[in-house]
Amino acid sequence: MALVFDRPSTRTRVSFETGVFELGGHPLVLREGELQLSRGESPRDTALVLSRMVHAIAIRTGPHEIVTELAEYAEIPVINMLTHEHHPCQALADLMTLRERFGRLEGLTLAYVGDGNNMARSLLIASRIAGIEFKIATPPELALPELDSQPLDEAVAGAHAIYTDVWVSMGDEAEAERKRELLAPFEVDDSLLDKARDDAIALHCLPAHPGEEISPEVLYGDRSAVWDQAENRLHAQKALLELLLSTVRSR
């Protein structure tokens, strides 16, 4: 399996590489600059070549168009490990974590607080599929175009989980100061978590910046499910691989 990493990674890299190995495969890790993609070879040509050499492609990159072009021309499964627009593999682990904690998915309420980024978009899509009510509270300047933001207190009221992500994502460094100013009121701390259900949990896709988007007390406290969430990247990715590769074998 070709694992293409154009962006740094901890959980995605380790979960996929370990998962492929534990399923009996060989993970071929290809870092930024190690493919001719970095020298102008098209995603189409890359897809055509890799389809003849490996059984699946997973890619963590910036432009979402790279993934869609790979998927259009590849004859093998192509997995989006992350783009600027989507982070679907993380969302799978998040659904698994919610089901572990609450025994179900349908009927839960998930509140996302912070930057309307790729993580928020993937959670919105996953929630709609799973029957979860998804609420979001963001500054107007950083809102998702797909969903209206709610006032912070309204978004978290009655939530089973409050989810947050870093305020400054990869590639956003030029906007760091502006985004921190806009997002300062959106820190997930104990007082915000208290406005959700009594059994509400805190979620974060990591890496975290304690004291910015989440307080240390919440991140490392009893109501945090963040570390189970991180572990579940491995289990969710193995399930995804098993599903996709068994589908290919059955053709």
What does this structure look like?
The protein is an alpha/beta fold. The protein has 10 helices and 8 strands. A 4-stranded parallel beta sheet has the order 2-1-3-4, with helices on both faces. Helix 1 crosses helix 10 and helix 4 packs across helix 5 (118-130). The two termini are 19 Å apart.
Q: How would you state the average pLDDT, rounded? A: 96
C-alpha end-to-end distance: 19 Å
> What integer value in Å does the Rg equal?
19 Å
Uncertain parts: none
Relative strand content: 5-15%
Number of strands: 8
Helicity, in percent? Answer: 40-55%
- Derived from helix and strand composition plus strand pairing, the structural class reads alpha/beta
User: Looking across the biggest beta sheet, what order are the strands in?
Assistant: 2-1-3-4
Largest sheet: 4 strands, parallel
Quick one: overall form? Answer: globular
Order of helices and strands: EHEHEHEHEHEHEHHEHH
What count of helical segments does DSSP give? 10
